[in-house]
Amino acid sequence: MARGKGILAADESTPTLTKRFDKLSITSTAETRMAWRELLFSSPGLSEWISGVILYDETIRQNNPEGRGFVEMLDKWGIIAGIKLDTGAKPLAGFIGETVTEGLDGLNQRVEEYYKLGARFAKWRAVISISETSPTDACIEANAHALARYAKICQEGGLVPIVEPEVLMDGEHSIEVCYSVTERTLLAVFEQLRVQEVKLEAMILKPSMVLPASDSPAQVSTTEVAEATVKCYLRNVPAAVGGIALLSGGQKEENATAHLAAMNKLGPLPWPLTFSYGRALQDRPMRIWGGKQENSSDTQAALLELAQANSQASIPSS
Ligand code: 13P
């Protein structure tokens, strides 16, 4: 949450990263996934804009040919390593089309192991989808409960939890519907965080923005997104929360940056408001890379440009 810095979410599971590689005809192997991540993280001067990187289990265990692991490399570059702790969103029994995020079984032992491997923060993503019949209270409650249990286990084991309740952009719903679902979700999440006695000062919230759905006929301006999002957070996120780091959720990269900048003009806000983007930081660099070593410096230049733009957008400018 350092001023002017954000988080690079590079914790795609192997199936998700493989899907992204496939679209660009890049072969997905443990070696190419490692090469991609090493290329990103070693971009010269990245730590000026990025304070933390979220890793996936495979990555945190990989060593480069000289035998150095990613945590050690990141540390040398001045970046803190985090780890994705959930094991994915699975069908919620009894509620067709909805999911609950799993991974609580044995979580305290996994936290202990990742701490020893050098992780100092973690992420758990809950997925809330909007349709005519969803989200149900069952879905919101089950996910909020799991998020709070995960956050408490992290704090007990010395990791800062990133609590990520993502309301998906898929569909045709309006910004008003997104507002009310985001509000319902945040209320339930903070109620469960209270019940589990999670220390709000020692957690980061990673919410989605309040937006019309990607296929909504009623698209709105950057200012309207910023105002609706900030209003929703001011009403539902306690001021004690250590910080908010937004996800990009499939928005175009320029929109993700413009929305963040517009929100930071609406302050003063009670928490630092920055970014923890995956696709909005990686999509363009990945297209430029295409799996070819000769494109390395252009790839790193693209990442640095995006990271710098988002860093600027994260600085309050009111
Ligand atoms: P996006 O920014 O691509 O939504 O990814 C962030 C993330 O960490 C999703 O869990």
Note down, in words, how this protein is organized.
The strands form 2 sheets. The chain has an 8-stranded parallel β-barrel with strand order 1-2-3-6-7-8-9-10, surrounded by 5 helices. The chain has helices spanning 14-23, 30-41, 57-60, 70-76, 107-117, 137-157, 175-195, 222-236, 253-263, 279-289, 296-313, and strands at residues 6-9, 50-55, 80-84, 89-91, 99-101, 121-128, 160-167, 204-205, 243-246, 273-277. By secondary structure, it is α/β, with parallel strands linked by helices. It has one domain: TIM Barrel, CATH 3.20.20. The protein starts with 5 loop residues before the first strand and ends in a 5-residue tail after the last helix. The protein has 11 helices and 10 strands. Residues 9, 125, 164, 247-249, 277-280 line the site of 1,3-dihydroxyacetonephosphate (13P).
Question: Could you report the average pLDDT, rounded to the nearest whole number?
Answer: 97
Task: Describe the main β-sheet briefly.
Answer: 8 strands, parallel, barrel
What structural class do you assign from the helix and strand content?
alpha/beta
Named CATH architecture: Alpha-Beta Barrel
The neighbouring-strand order within the major sheet is 1-2-3-6-7-8-9-10
| Uncertain spans | none
E-strand count:
10
Supply the CATH class. Answer: Alpha Beta
Strand percentage, roughly? 15-25%
The total number of structural domains is 1
User: Radius of gyration over alpha carbons?
Assistant: 19 Å
Q: Can you count the helices?
A: 11
Bound molecules: 1,3-dihydroxyacetonephosphate
Q: N- to C-terminal separation?
A: 19 Å
Helix content, binned percent: 40-55%
At the third CATH level, what is the topology name?
TIM Barrel
How would you describe the shape? globular
CATH homology superfamily name: Aldolase class I
Give the topology string: H per helix, E per strand: EHHEHHEEEHEHEHEHEHEHH
